[in-house]
Design a protein that fits this description.
By secondary structure, the protein is mostly helical. The chain is built from five helices and no strands. The chain folds into two domains: 47 residues; 43 residues.
């Protein structure tokens, strides 16, 4: 049986030596290791941290009309959430409940 979720994976990519050196300097200034930095970014991306999601929306390859539509839908979702009085955590909890009760969705 595979111990899913506890196995470690390496995430590797290449970068120029100049950009890598600049990254290391910035990380040192901020008191972060490379591993901690990338883990924080990955966590924010996976958990839909709006600061990271907004940045990704700005840099990802997508037509201007699609970016505008995505931005509009996110704003509508936030407005609806606020109008209903739900916190972000409560919304995530609702989706978890739905997923548990209807795993085929």
């Amino acid at each position: 049986m595979i111990d899913y979720g506890n196995l470690t994976k390496r995430v590797v990519f290449t970068e120029t030596d100049h950009r890598h050196a600049k990254l290391l300097l910035r990380l040192q200034q901020d008191g972060l290791t490379q591993a901690a930095f990338f883990r924080h970014l990955i966590t924010g991306y996976i958990e839909n941290d709006e600061r990271i999601v907004e940045y990704i929306d700005d840099v990802k390859t997508q037509s201007k009309s699609r970016k505008a539509k995505t931005k509009k839908l996110r704003a509508q979702g936030k407005q609806l959430t606020a109008e209903c009085g739900f916190s972000e955590e409560q919304v995530h909890d609702l989706f978890d409940i739905i997923a548990q009760e209807h795993p085929d969705l």
